[in-house]
Write a structure and sequence with these properties.
Layout lengths: L8 E6 L2 E10 L4 H12 L5 E12 L1 H16 L3 E5 L4 H9 L8 E2 L2 H16 L2
Parallel strand pairs: 2-3, 3-4, 4-5
Antiparallel strand pairs: 1-2
Helix pairs in contact: 1-2
């Protein structure tokens, strides 16, 4: 029996800020891959973690639960979770309904999210 989990999320650092890029379809079966990427990103303690859904082609409520849980865990450590919204309209609507697309934590592009993350990082260091 194989326990391989399809790769749906990649983690990279951009100027010390962890950026998770979600691609393809994500659902209950590959949710652990996204959770693992978010946990690894949080360990960098950079002040913010960016989750980009720009290249996600499908996701269901599993991603909502992962993101809500991650946001709560990150807040405990004075870190923020920033979301780059998906290109697919249905995905944007799901995130809106869940309250995850707001003016302070959601962005159209990764560059916009990175600018916000750097500002958060600077604010965090000045306290």
């Amino acid at each position: 029996m194989s326990t391989d989990i399809p790769r749906v999320a990649g983690l990279r650092l951009v100027d010390g800020i962890p950026v998770i890029e979600v691609f393809g379809e994500i659902d209950l079966t590959n949710r652990p891959a996204l959770e693992g990427a978010i946990n690894a990103a949080a360990e960098h303690d950079a002040g913010a973690v960016i989750v980009s859904l720009e290249r996600a082609s499908y996701f269901d409520s599993a991603i909502i639960h992962v993101i809500l849980g991650a946001r709560s865990r990150l807040r405990v450590n004075r870190q923020g979770l920033l979301i780059v919204g998906p290109a697919i309209e249905a995905g944007r609507r799901i995130l809106e309904i869940a309250g995850l697309l707001d003016s302070k934590s959601s962005f159209e592009t990764t560059d916009g999210a990175l600018r916000a993350a750097k500002a958060m990082q600077a604010d965090r260091g000045s306290v």
